[in-house]
Design a protein that fits this description.
The structure holds two protein chains of two kinds. Chain A is mainly alpha-helical. Helix content of chain A is 72%, strand content 1%. Chain A starts with 22 loop residues before the first helix and ends in a 6-residue tail after the last helix. Chain B has a six-stranded mixed β-sheet, with helices on both faces. A four-stranded antiparallel β-sheet of chain B has the order 2-1-4-5, with helices on one face. Classes of the chains: A mainly alpha, B alpha/beta. The complex binds adenosine-5'-diphosphate and magnesium ion (MG). Chain B: Keywords: ATP-binding, Nucleotide-binding, Transport.
Chain lengths: 493, 261
C-alpha cells in the first residue's frame, strides 16, 4: 500500500495561457482549421463566397447611374466593355418616388420632418442615456433647421430668433455643469427641465397632422378628447364609483371624437385659420407608406397586446373568453384576408357617406393582427415568471394593477423582447402586402415603374433597392432589441 | 438537522407576550380540490408571541401561514388578523397584507430592481410614503440587517444569506405588526443560516410577533415561547419549547423529534 497523503507546501502563481490559443493565428487555428472536416468545410465556404462575389461585384459595379432608360443602360454597359451589369439609372430617376410615392414634391419636407421628429420623440422612450437638456436642445435644433428650409417672412425670423435663444440657453446649461455634478444637483432637489416625454406624447398628434395636413385645430381637438375623458372620470368617480366612472369617461371621450371633434375644429379654424396643405391618402406611397403603417401599428399593438395577454389570464370569464376568442380568430386568419376585408368589405358595413380612410383601415387591421401575436409572446413571458414573484407582490399589499405594472410586466416584457421584436420586424415586412389591395408601397411602386416603357424589364435593381431599404430598418430594430436586452440584464446569472 | 448555537445570550427584556390577540383562527378548514389540507385549525396568537411551527413535509405548515395573509383562501371557519376578518373583500385583504410581513424560502426578491428599490417599492406605492423618506427607512433597515453597503446592487449579485436578509428588511420597511417566515433558512448553506437566524433573533428581541415555520430546533429552543407540531393538516401538539422537546406527549411528535434531532 502506497502512502496517499499529500500536503502542498508552495502555492502556484498565475500564468499566461499558451500563445498558440490566443491572437489571430490562435483564433484561426481554433475556429477554422481544428481537424480535417472543419478545414475542408472552411475551404469549401471560402470557394463559395468567392464564386458569389466574383459574379455580384462586376454586376453591381456598373457605370449606369445616369442612364435614362433600360436601352441606354445597355449601351453604357457595352461602351464600358462589359457583357452585363446593373442598370442604376432607374434608381437615380425614381428614388424620390420610392421613398415618398406621389406625395406632392413641395410638401415632402413634412414627412422628412415627421421622421426626424419621430427620433427626437423616441429617444426618451427607447433610451435612458440622454439627458433632458440634450433632448430639448435636439428638438430646438431640428425645428430651427426646418425653419431655414421651409419658412420665410417675419414670423419665420421671430421663430428662428426664439429657437436660437433657446438653443444658446440650453447649450450653456449643458456646458456649465458636468454630468456627475448634475446627478448630485438633481438628488438635492434642483429644478429640472420639463420631461421630454411631454413632446413624445404631443408627437402622437403632431405626426398625423404633418403627414395629412389640414387645420391645426384637428389634432388639438383630438388631443382634447383625453382631457374630456379624464375630466368626466374625475367628476363622476366620487359619485358613481371608479369602475363606472372609468367606463363613462371612455364613452365621453369616444363621443367627443366621433361627433364633436369635426365641428369644434372647423369652428376654431373659422376663427383662426392655421393649417397645412391637406394631402390625400392616395398620394401616400413608397417607404413613407410602409413606415407610416409600420410605426403606428407597432406602437399601438404593443399596449393592445399586453392588455389581451392579461385578459387571457383574467379570472373574469367574460374578459378571458373575449381575449381568447379575439386572439385565436386573428391568428387563424391570414393578414392578406384582413387587408381585403379592410379594402372591400369594411365600407359595406359603414353608414353610407362615411369616408373611412383606406390607410387608417389598413393600419387598424395590421394593428389587430400583430396585437394578437404580441399577446401570445407576452403570455409566454408571463408564464416564465416564477410564481414567487406574484406572491411577493401580493404579500407586500400591492394591488393587481400595481403588481402588474411594477413587478410582473417589467420582467415579463424583458423576457419577451426577442419575440416582440420578431413580431414587429415581421409586421414591418408585411406592410408590403398592401400592394395587393392597390396601395403604392415600394413593391406596388416597383410594379408601376416597370410599366413605364423606359424601364420595362428591370427587376433586380428595384427589388434590390427595396430590400436594401427594408434591411436597414429591420437591422436597426434587431440591433436595438439586443441593446435593450443587454441594458436590462440585471439577473447576473 | 443543523444544530444552531447562539454565541450571545438572547435579550429577553422586550420579549413580552401581551394579552391582546394578534391572530385568531377558528375552526378553519381548507381543501385543494378534494384534498383536505387543513382540518379544524384553532389557533390564537397573542401580540409579542414567537411561535415556531414544525412537522413533516406536506403536513400543511406552509398552507397554514399562507392562509393568514390570504395567499391561499380557506373554505370554512374564520381568520381574524389584527381585528380584520379575512373574507373575499379585497379591501380587507390588502389591509391585512400591508400589516403582515412575509419571508419566503426562496426569498422572492424582485430581480429587476436594486436592493434599495426592492425595499422602497411597497412603502412608496402602498403606503404613499414620499421617496426620500422611504429611502431613509430602507437604509435604516438595511443597516439593521447589516448590509447597507449592498443598497445599489441587484439581488442577483448577492449571496443567498444576504438576499434573505434583504427580503426580511423589505418586509420590515412596511412596519408590519406580524411577521410570517416560511422555512427562511431551508435554501441556505450552513454559514448563511447563522446570519439569517441572527437577524431573526434581533427582531424577536424587539418584541415582534412572529410565526416561523422552521426545522432549526436551536432557534425554537432559544427564541420561541411556543412550539406547534403539525401533521396531516392538523395541529397535533403545542407547548412551551422546553416541555415540547423534553417531554413530548403524542407518539407522532416523539417519532418526528427522534428523526430530526
Ligand atoms: N397549490 C396546491 N394544489 C394542490 N395541492 C397542494 C398545493 N399546495 C400544496 N399542496 C399539497 O398540500 C399539502 C400541504 O402542503 P404544504 O402546506 O406546502 O406542506 P408543508 O409546508 O408542511 O411541507 C401537500 O401534500 C401538498 O402536496
Ligand atoms: Mg412548506
Amino acid at each position: 500500500m502506497t502512502d496517499l497523503s499529500y500536503v502542498r507546501t508552495e502555492m502556484l502563481s498565475e500564468r499566461d495561457p499558451p500563445l498558440s490559443t490566443t491572437g489571430v493565428i490562435g483564433w484561426i487555428r481554433e475556429n477554422l482549421f481544428n481537424g480535417l472536416s472543419n478545414s475542408v468545410l472552411t475551404l469549401a465556404s471560402l470557394a463559395f463566397i468567392y464564386w458569389v462575389l466574383s459574379h455580384f461585384i462586376p454586376w453591381f459595379w456598373s457605370p449606369t447611374w445616369n442612364g435614362t432608360s433600360l436601352g441606354q443602360c445597355r449601351e453604357m454597359i457595352g461602351a464600358a466593355g462589359k457583357e452585363s451589369g446593373a442598370c442604376w439609372g432607374v434608381i437615380n430617376e425614381r428614388w424620390p418616388q420610392m421613398l415618398f410615392g406621389f406625395y406632392p414634391v413641395e410638401e415632402r419636407w413634412r414627412p422628412i420632418l415627421a421622421f426626424v421628429l419621430m427620433f427626437v420623440a423616441l429617444i426618451p422612450v427607447l433610451f435612458n442615456m440622454i439627458s433632458r437638456r440634450w433632448n430639448w436642445f435636439l428638438l430646438a435644433l431640428v425645428l430651427f433647421v426646418t425653419t431655414l428650409f421651409v419658412a420665410s417672412g417675419w414670423l419665420a425670423v421671430v421663430a428662428q430668433v426664439l429657437l436660437v435663444v433657446a438653443m444658446i440657453w440650453i447649450g450653456r446649461l449643458i456646458l456649465v455643469t458636468k454630468v456627475s455634478d448634475r446627478a448630485d444637483e438633481i438628488k438635492a432637489g434642483a429644478r429640472r427641465l420639463p420631461n421630454p416625454l411631454m413632446f413624445s406624447a404631443a408627437f402622437v398628434f403632431i405626426m398625423p397632422w404633418l403627414l395629412w395636413g389640414g387645420t391645426v385645430w384637428a389634432p388639438i381637438a383630438t388631443a382634447f378628447g383625453f382631457v374630456v375623458g379624464w375630466g368626466a372620470f374625475r367628476v363622476l368617480a366620487p359619485v358613481a364609483g371608479s369602475l363606472v366612472a372609468m367606463i363613462l369617461g371612455v364613452v365621453a371621450a369616444v363621443v367627443w371624437w366621433l361627433f364633436l371633434v369635426g365641428p369644434v375644429a372647423a369652428g376654431l379654424h373659422g376663427l383662426l385659420p392655421v393649417g397645412l396643405e391637406p394631402v390625400q391618402s392616395r398620394n401616400f406611397g413608397g417607404l413613407l407608406l410602409s413606415v407610416t403603417i409600420g410605426v403606428v401599428a407597432i406602437s399601438v399593438s404593443l399596449p393592445l397586446g399586453i392588455v389581451l395577454a392579461l385578459g387571457r389570464q383574467s379570472d373574469l370569464m367574460l374578459v378571458k373568453w373575449m381575449s381568447v376568442g379575439f386572439i385565436e380568430f386573428i391568428r387563424g386568419v391570414p393578414l392578406i384576408t384582413l387587408l381585403f376585408v379592410a379594402s372591400f368589405l369594411l365600407n359595406v358595413f359603414m353608414p353610407p357617406g362615411t369616408n373611412f380612410d383606406i390607410i387608417l383601415r389598413v393600419i387598424i387591421m395590421a394593428t389587430l393582427f400583430s396585437a394578437a401575436y404580441i399577446a401570445e409572446v407576452v403570455r409566454g413571458g408571463l408564464a416564465a415568471l416564477p410564481k414567487g414573484q406574484y406572491e411577493a407582490a401580493d404579500a407586500l399589499g400591492l394591488d393587481y394593477w400595481k403588481a402588474q405594472r411594477l413587478i410582473i410586466m417589467p420582467q415579463a416584457l424583458k423576457i419577451s423582447i426577442p419575440g416582440i421584436v420578431s413580431v414587429f420586424i415581421g409586421l414591418f415586412k408585411d406592410t408590403t402586402l398592401v400592394s395587393i389591395i392597390g396601395l403604392l408601397d415600394p413593391i406596388g411602386l416597383s410594379n408601376s415603374i416597370r410599366a413605364d416603357v423606359a424601364w420595362n424589364g428591370i427587376v433586380w435593381e428595384l427589388y434590390g433597392f427595396i430590400a436594401f431599404l427594408f434591411f436597414i430598418i429591420t437591422f436597426l430594430m434587431s440591433r436595438y432589441s439586443m441593446y435593450l436586452e443587454r441594458r436590462l440584464r440585471t439577473d447576473h446569472r | 438537522m443543523s444544530t444552531f448555537e447562539l454565541e450571545r445570550d438572547v435579550d429577553r427584556s422586550h420579549m413580552q407576550v401581551s394579552d391582546r390577540v394578534a391572530i385568531e383562527i377558528r375552526n378553519m378548514n381548507k381543501w385543494y380540490g378534494q384534498f383536505h389540507v387543513l382540518r379544524d385549525i384553532d389557533l390564537t396568537v397573542y401580540e409579542g408571541e414567537r411561535i415556531v411551527i414544525c412537522g413533516p413535509s406536506g403536513s400543511g405548515k406552509s398552507t397554514l401561514i399562507r392562509c393568514i395573509n390570504r395567499l391561499e383562501e380557506h373554505q370554512a371557519g374564520g381568520i381574524v388578523v389584527d381585528g380584520i376578518e379575512l373574507s373575499s373583500d379585497l379591501k380587507n385583504v390588502d389591509k391585512v397584507r400591508s400589516e403582515v410581513g412575509m419571508v419566503f424560502q426562496h426569498f422572492n426578491l424582485f430581480p429587476h430592481l436594486t436592493v434599495l428599490d426592492n425595499l422602497t417599492l411597497a412603502p412608496i406605492w402602498v403606503r404613499k410614503t414620499p421617496r426620500k423618506e422611504a429611502e431613509e427607512i430602507a437604509m435604516h433597515y438595511l443597516e439593521k440587517v447589516k448590509i447597507p453597503e449592498q443598497a445599489l446592487k441587484y439581488p442577483g449579485q448577492l449571496s443567498g444569506g444576504q438576499q434573505q436578509r434583504v427580503a426580511i428588511a423589505r418586509s420590515l420597511c412596511m412596519k408590519p405588526r406580524i411577521m410570517l417566515f416560511d422555512e427562511p433558512t431551508s435554501a441556505l448553506d450552513p454559514e448563511m443560516i447563522k446570519e439569517v437566524l441572527d437577524t431573526m433573533i434581533s427582531l424577536a428581541e424587539e418584541g415582534m410577533t412572529m410565526l416561523v415555520v422552521t426545522h432549526e430546533m436551536g432557534f425554537a429552543e432559544q427564541v420561541a415561547n411556543r412550539v406547534i407540531f403539525m401533521d396531516a393538516g392538523q395541529i397535533v401538539e403545542q407547548n412551551a419549547p422546553s416541555e415540547f422537546f423534553n417531554n413530548p406527549q403524542s407518539d407522532r411528535t416523539k417519532l418526528f423529534l427522534s428523526q430530526i434531532l
